[in-house]
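Complex 243.
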Amino acid sequence: MSSRIFKDEGLVIRTRVLGEADRLVTLLTLKGGKFEAAARGARKMKSRLAAGVDIFTRGEYTFHRGKTWPIITGQYPKERFLWFREDPELYPYGLYLAELADRLIVGEEACPELYNLLLGSWRLLGKSGDRSLILRAFELKAAQYLGYSPGLHNCPGCGSEQIRGFGPGEGSMVCSDCWSADFISLDSGTIALARRLLEVPLHQVVMIRPSARQKNELSRMNSAFLAYHLDPGELKSKRLLDE
Ligand SMILES: [Zn+2]
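Predicted structure with zinc ion bound:
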């Protein structure tokens, strides 16, 4: 029988109003995967709970198992990603990753790789570098950790390495012989870019310098791939980023 009290480290990826004074907080945690927890009194101005349960916070939390949701009974904020609040240009980037993590991760299964991917990406976005490239790397790596690793080398139809582009439904690069009209043609540089983003550690992503065309193509490829296999749906942040 599991204890009624448990602790975990987590990233706040969403908060919602709950009743008069409470908030329902969605956390991506290190040990417990993604789940919602109630923060009692978190909407009162002076609540000691308020600061640690804001979106874009990393903290250590103590929970008491409640009837509907776990209740946060203790919180120790470790890191607050304030640049997403203070810089309106940065905000949609941080929100996009939070929304994507929320939509793509379904259960309460621990996935430390995803946890560290989101944490590392939020940190990197606060530094200088190509922000859109961090989002593309996140999309590819998150899909891989969720078991939908995109095939970036051989055509699944014939095994050819002569790649023409990407088949979203196939989840793979495809050759000319196996081509279908709804596939996405890719520049050879874009194919190389996708491979590199998936292979290199996250912190090395900002050292890559792709062309605008390569970034546009990869953005289309990733969106189509995610929509087909993981169906994140409409995201508020995506609209903000497109603007
Ligand atoms: Zn083929």
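Strands lie at 5-18, 22-29, 33-39, 57-64, 71-80, 163-167, 172-175, 184-185.
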